[in-house]
Write a structure and sequence with these properties.
single chain, mainly beta, 4-stranded antiparallel sheet, 3 helices, 26 strands
């Protein structure tokens, strides 16, 4: 299955082209590269050039290959979707494998994705639920790879032999118990990989970093080391990394929806959103917390970099490769996936690219 040309008609509908929004913090500048585009498939005729997808809820996102396409997690199924980054066009069949957790009425509810420098992808379930059975079906931390090299224009295939599942539930519940005691309200909504260099400058340790949406009073982030040869089914030992109060917007508490670690910036981007009891949204915030600002005790104080899209819910966040330039310590392109709870709100999931730069840096 090969990815074809960009869907016709998107520019006519004004889904890509638009003025960019700019937000400034003390050290960071954020610009939107066009408007959010809906996830869709090609339409059936010239008069209907696209068919907006009414079901996929984009709960997490990671780039594929050079970043022209991204992998989207749907929190109602174990399948992933390959999507054209610039247009939101879903391509080919779902990306899946029998080795991945099975889709059930309760699970796996993937709420975070990440990737490491070795080509591994990671996905994690919410670990939440009203019963032990529900929590068990959503208690998956999965590592997997794609078969062979990802060639330009080709939908990737999961290598079943690479799929490994780890236990995060017991350790996270214990760590949360020390932090707040509200272990029955644990709900994951963020996953990142942080690779730490040793004294010789080479990667010495790899951390799985997990964020919690609930309990809702704070953004809480925990980290555990993971090894390349980590035994399947083994438990990871999570410890608190940082926490902070994301505040309220229009009277609604902001909660964590995604985490991202950017090595060249030596820090975490944190995404928070606001959703009230009536499934209405009140805006999203992008935060940045450098490694050297993570406190040993007490609340963290991240930079509030960007407030955006008051009427949608941003849930996925990833950094895109920068063609022709390589990594940059001053500028990064982030892709945001808006979940929007299509089943309830009838608003499709969308994608948007943000260009984030240090205000005092130069490209």
């Amino acid at each position: 299955m090969f990815i074809g040309k960009t869907t016709r008609g998107l520019a006519l509908l004004g889904l890509i082209v638009g003025g960019s929004a700019t937000s400034r913090a003390d050290t960071i500048r954020v610009e939107a590269e066009g408007l959010p585009v809906p996830l869709h498939r090609p339409g059936s005729s010239e008069s209907e050039p696209i068919q907006v997808d009414p079901k996929v809820e984009a709960s997490a996102v990671e780039p594929i290959g050079d970043g022209k396409f991204v992998l989207i997690a749907h929190d109602k199924a174990s399948e992933f979707y390959a999507v054209e980054t610039a247009t939101g066009r879903i391509v080919g069949e779902p990306v899946t494998s029998d080795a991945l957790p099975a889709t059930t009425a309760s699970g796996p509810k993937f709420e975070g994705m990440a990737r490491d420098s070795k080509g591994n992808f990671y996905a994690i379930g919410s670990h939440s639920g009203k019963t032990d059975e529900e929590r068990g079906q959503r208690a998956h931390l999965v590592r997997f790879r794609f078969r062979g090299d990802i060639r330009p224009g080709e939908v990737p295939k999961v290598d079943p032999a690479s799929v490994v599942k780890f236990d995060a539930a017991a350790s996270l519940r214990a760590a949360l118990g020390k932090e707040s005691g509200e272990v029955d309200r644990l709900k994951i909504e963020g996953l990142a990989i942080r690779e730490l260099a040793g004294p010789d400058g080479k990667t010495a340790r790899t951390q799985v970093v997990v964020g919690l949406r609930e309990p809702t009073d704070l953004v809480r982030v925990f980290a555990a080391e993971i090894k390349d040869d980590q035994p399947a089914g083994s438990s990871l030992a999570f410890e608190k990394l940082f926490a902070f109060d994301a505040g309220r917007r229009e009277g609604v508490q902001a909660t964590l929806t995604s985490l991202l670690y950017v090595p060249d910036w030596r820090g975490f981007f944190v995404l928070t959103a606001t959703e009230d009891k009536d499934n209405a949204f009140h805006g999203n915030t992008l935060w940045f917390l450098p490694d050297d600002a993570i406190p040993k005790a007490g609340p963290a104080r991240p930079v509030r970099a960007h407030d955006f899209e008051v009427a949608m819910k941003a849930e996925g966040l990833a950094d895109l490769p920068q063609p022709g330039k390589g990594a940059s310590p001053t500028t990064v392109r982030l892709v945001v996936a808006f979940d929007n709870d299509a089943k309830s709100t009838h608003m499709p999931s969308r994608l948007q690219v943000l260009r984030v730069s240090r205000r005092d840096g130069r490209d």
